[in-house]
Write a structure and sequence with these properties.
- The complex is a heterodimer of chains A (about 200) and B (about 200).
- Chain A has about 200 residues and is mostly helical.
- Chain A has one domain.
- In chain A, helix 4 packs across helix 5.
- Chain A is globular.
- Helix content of chain B is about 75%, strand content about 0%.
- Chain B contains ten helices and no strands.
- Chain B starts with a helix and ends in an 8-residue tail after the last helix.
- Classes of the chains: A mainly alpha (about 200), B mainly alpha (about 200).
- The interface between A and B is large, with 43 and 46 residues.
Chain lengths: ~200, ~200
C-alpha cells in the first residue's frame, strides 16, 4: 500500500531523523511536560494532530501563499488550530489542561511545526504532507513518553498515576528520587537519550 | 514599586525562563556557540520582550477581558509578536544601521522564540493571581518589570552557556556525546545550580 518513499516519510522521523534528538526541534515543551506520563501522552497526541492538520492546510494553500508573508500565514493557521485543541482539552480533560498550562499555547511557537511547514508542506503534495506530519508528531511523542516514563517511575514510583513500586521496597529502604521531579533532570535525561541514540546509529552515518 | 522590584529579581533568578521553564530552548542551544553572537541574540530577545509583553498586557486587560474574547488570545498574541518583530526590524534598519548589522539576523528568528510567546502567556496567568502574591502582575509597571527581568535572565543564561561551550571546545568528550549531548548535560548542571535561587524573596 505504501511505497518506499512514503514509508520513509512516515517512519523516518521515528528514529533516524527524529525531530527532537536529531534535528533538535521542539525542545521547550518536550522537557517541561514530562514530569508525569499522562500530560506527556496528551501533549504528544495534541502536537501530532496539530502538525498533521497544519501540514495539510498549508500544503493545500501552498500555491496561493505569497512568499513574503508566509510566516505570518503559517502562524495564524497554527494559532487557530492550537486554540481549537486548547478549547477541546479544557472541555473534556480539564485537569490535564491545567497541568499543561502555558505549554499548550506554546505549541504555536514549537519549532517542529514551523520547521515542517517550511521544509516540507510548502513544497509537497497533501497526502505526503499528512504522512510527514504524522511521522514527526509520533517521533516527538515517542521521546516525550520515554522521558516521562523514567521521570515518573523514578521520581514518584508510579506510571500513569498508578503505583508500580511495591510497598515492601519502601519498607526495605527504597526512596523516590526527588531530583527526577526537578527541571534539571529532564535536561540530563534528554542528553543521555541523545548519547544512546547516537552511539546506536553510528554505523549508518 | 517594591513589588515590581521583587518581581524583577525573581524573574531573573528563581523563575528563570531557561532553567525553570525551558522557554526559548531551541535558539538557546543553536546560537550559543560563541559569546559574541549569543550576546546579540540575548539583547534582541530582551528588547522584543520589553515591547511585546506590555502591549499584550494592555490588550489582554482592556480589550480581551472587557469583551469576553479570552479564547482569541493565542491568535492575537502571536499576531502582535510577529507584527512588532517586523516593525522593530524596519525601524532599527532605518535609524541605526550598526545595531541592525549586529541584531539583524536574529530578529526574524525571535518571532517564533518560545520565550517571547511564553512571557505573554505567563503574564496572562499572572494577571489572575491575588495581588499580594509575589508572582502577580497587577499593573503596566509590573508587566515592564517582568519583561525586563525575564529578558535579562535569558540573556545571562545564554551568555553563560556560550562561555562554557567556548571552553569545552578543548575538552576530550566521548564521540557520541559530542555537540548536543554534552550541551544538554551542561545545561542540566547549570539548572541545578540555579535551583538554589528558588526560595529567593525580597
Amino acid at each position: 500500500m505504501l511505497s518506499q518513499k512514503t514509508k520513509e516519510t512516515l517512519f523516518g522521523p521515528l528514529n533516524v531523523n527524529n525531530p527532537v534528538v536529531v534535528q533538535v526541534l521542539g525542545i521547550c515543551s518536550a522537557l517541561a511536560v514530562t514530569v508525569q506520563l499522562k500530560p506527556a501522552l496528551v501533549m504528544g497526541i495534541a502536537v501530532t494532530i496539530i502538525v498533521a492538520l497544519s501540514n495539510v492546510i498549508i500544503s493545500l494553500l501552498r500555491n496561493t501563499i505569497p512568499m513574503r508573508i508566509r510566516i505570518i500565514v503559517q502562524l495564524v493557521v497554527v494559532a487557530a488550530l492550537v486554540t481549537l485543541v486548547s478549547e477541546v482539552l479544557k472541555a473534556f480533560a480539564y485537569d490535564v489542561a491545567m497541568q499543561l498550562s502555558v505549554y499548550i499555547g506554546l505549541i504555536i511557537t514549537n519549532c517542529i511545526l514551523m520547521g515542517r511547514l517550511e521544509a516540507f508542506a510548502m513544497t509537497n503534495k497533501v497526502w505526503d504532507s499528512l504522512l510527514d506530519g504524522l511521522g514527526n508528531g509520533f517521533g516527538y511523542a515517542i521521546i516525550l513518553i520515554i522521558v516521562a516514563f523514567f521521570r515518573e517511575l523514578l521520581g514518584s514510583g508510579s506510571l500513569l498515576g498508578f503505583k508500580v513500586i511495591p510497598d515492601s521496597w519502601y519498607a526495605a529502604g527504597y526512596e523516590n528520587c526527588g531530583m527526577m521531579m526537578m527541571p534539571a533532570m529532564a535536561l540530563i535525561l534528554v542528553g543521555c537519550i541523545i548519547w544512546a541514540h547516537r552511539s546506536l546509529n553510528k554505523e549508518e552515518k | 514599586m517594591e513589588h515590581a522590584i521583587s518581581l524583577f529579581v525573581r524573574s531573573i533568578f528563581a523563575d528563570n525562563m531557561i532553567f525553570a521553564f525551558f522557554l526559548g530552548m531551541c535558539s538557546y542551544l543553536a546560537v550559543s556557540k560563541t559569546v559574541k553572537t549569543s550576546l546579540g541574540l540575548g539583547v534582541a530577545v530582551t528588547f522584543v520582550l520589553l515591547i511585546t509583553l506590555p502591549v499584550n498586557y494592555l490588550l489582554q486587560v482592556y480589550v480581551l477581558d472587557k469583551l469576553g474574547l479570552g479564547y482569541l488570545s493565542f491568535i492575537l498574541f502571536i499576531a502582535v509578536i510577529a507584527a512588532i518583530v517586523q516593525l522593530v526590524e524596519m525601524i532599527v534598519e532605518k535609524y541605526s544601521p550598526s545595531l541592525y548589522a549586529s541584531l539583524g539576523i536574529f530578529l526574524p528568528l525571535i518571532a517564533v522564540n518560545c520565550a517571547i510567546m511564553g512571557g505573554s502567556l505567563f503574564m496572562q496567568q499572572r494577571i489572575l493571581l491575588d495581588p499580594e502574591n509575589v508572582k502577580a502582575i497587577a499593573g503596566i509597571g509590573d508587566a515592564f518589570a517582568y519583561a525586563l527581568g525575564s529578558g535579562i535572565g535569558w540573556l545571562m543564561a545564554i551568555v553563560c552557556l556560550a562561555g562554557i561551550r567556548e571552553k569545552m571546545e578543548y575538552n576530550d568528550v566521548p564521540k557520541p556525546l559530542q555537540g548536543l549531548g554534552i550541551t544538554f548535560i551542561t545545561v542540566g548542571l547549570m539548572a541545578m545550580a540555579f535551583m538554589c535561587f528558588s526560595g529567593l524573596n525580597i
